[in-house]
């Protein structure tokens, strides 16, 4: 057994033992006679469609309930499923109906982020196993509570970071952990992915079929109700519900970076700089106010003591890249680059996509490559059958640590977003920020990117976030009380996500 797996095994063996006691409910009353595991899928507009396909393609499962607070979305999906599966699932709008249903053994959820943890906790309290999309929580304390619920109720909780089941990434990480590129202490996660403005901030109608109270759930009910033009999906860029791209695409890469570096804890120092920039330039209107309030351009620096991670988010046009080093590493001149670069003493390893990794020697020549995807949902179902937490490729604890990277980076940004400064001020502060990156080089690359997109940085300044010190054991900032308040949120009854000791 590898060291990593051994550690995971020891950590989870107690929980696994209790999970065996609470073996799956195959064959209990209410379940159809076919002995398949009954599935409820929650939130099925976008990503939920993939969840449906995955369970339709697993002969061990049957989709029995579809939950969506948008009645039209739920019915459309049920119609499709009926054609493929024969059995039409029951459409419901309140997920608690699925949790009460004794024909349901496991749930998967692809709701907006602010619902993830509470959905998982309610499901596991009701004795269901749970596949929860990334980021597994909307804030740090929700992640801790979700882990506590999985352990207390002996349930399987898999996180939707599917790279964990990808052959290419599994083999690349093993290669690196066995010294394939020498000593590796630093990784750079990239999300260079165009995100256009979501339109003017305004007062938009809620679609007629949507139960907005249930959609809002653990978040406060806003007034105006919807400030974005498009109701579904674009909540990603409103912090009340989403976590920006650092917390959207980010958790896939922060997870691979943490996994590859062998980091099993939170960072101790965090700093983010950046902004939501460029949309006024694109609209040729200095007074344009976009509906989003998460950063579209960010650099987050995380210090883990002897290791370091940097995550770069770029949402403006990345069409033509003239970054020769990154072009070589990704073997692509396209500016769209989503992946992780690991810098070793003997070479460099790049996760180019979910199913492809490249190894470069010291002369930047390709020395090796890893290819192949995986079956993340099937891995979840297998663990639901084996009742062994260590069989899960992405147990909730991994998801929590990786989501927290995004949350901590965002908190630094939010704490400093009114601190608009000149590039030289950021440069001066970065000199004292502990990092294994060349902080100044990364800053200048970011400046170049913004300038290329027409952002005049003396007019539209970047924000310098708070330099935060974090105690990974206590999960508390040690130098900023206001930041501590952002580790959780104010909930409204009955959508209260309990603290870990109250699950
Ligand atoms: N793993 C991946 O590669 C991947 C890819 C895309 C999205 N995602 C994740 O999937 C999630 C959903 O993203 P999306 O783009 O599909 O969003 P979306 O807004 O298009 O869909 C969300 C759906 O959830 C429904 N919903 C909201 N609250 C609900 C509730 N309380 N109960 C039941 N349904 C509810 C909405 O009505 C909507 O139909 C996000 O968390 C995202 O991060 C993961």
The averaged pLDDT comes out at: 93
Treating each run of at least 4 consecutive H or I residues as one helix, how many helices?
A: 16
The low-confidence runs, each spanning 5 or more residues with pLDDT under 50, are 1-31
Count the beta strands. 18
The amount of helix comes to: 25-40%
CATH architecture of the largest domain: 2-Layer Sandwich
User: How far apart are the termini?
Assistant: 32 Å
Give the total of domains: 2
**Beta-strand residue percentage:** 15-25%
Judged by helices, strands and strand pairing, the structural class is: alpha/beta
Main sheet specs: 12 strands, mixed
CATH topology name of the largest domain: Dihydrodipicolinate Reductase, domain 2
Radius of gyration: 22 Å
Question: CATH class of the largest domain, please?
Answer: Alpha Beta
CATH superfamily of the largest domain: Dihydrodipicolinate Reductase, domain 2
What is the global morphology? globular
Which ligands occur here? nicotinamide-adenine-dinucleotide
Explained architecture:
By secondary structure, the protein is an alpha/beta fold. It has two domains: 3-164 and 378-395, 3-Layer(aba) Sandwich (Rossmann fold), CATH 3.40.50.720; 166-372 and 400-490, Dihydrodipicolinate Reductase, domain 2, CATH 3.30.360.10. Helix content is 34%, strand content 18%. It is built from 16 helices and 18 strands. It has helices at 3-21, 47-56, 71-85, 95-100, 116-125, 140-153, 167-177, 212-216, 250-261, 279-283, 324-330, 376-386, 396-415, 423-430, 439-452, 481-485, and strands spanning 37-42, 61-67, 90-92, 106-109, 129-132, 157-159, 184-192, 269-275, 297-303, 308-314, 337-344, 348-353, 356-360, 366-371, 420-421, 462-464, 468-471, 476-477. The strands form two sheets. Strands 7, 8, 9, 10, 11, 12, 13, 14, 15, 16, 17 and 18 form a twelve-stranded mixed β-sheet that branches. A six-stranded parallel β-sheet has the order 3-2-1-4-5-6, sandwiched between helices. Helix 5 runs parallel beside helix 6 (140-153), helix 9 packs across helix 13 (396-415) and helix 14 (423-430) runs antiparallel to helix 15 (439-452). The radius of gyration is 22 Å and the shape is globular. The protein starts with a helix and ends in an 18-residue tail after the last helix. Residues 1-31 have low confidence and may be disordered. Nicotinamide-adenine-dinucleotide binds at residues 42-48, 67-70, 73, 95, 110-113, 115, 133-134, 160, 162, 214-215, 217, 232-233, 248.
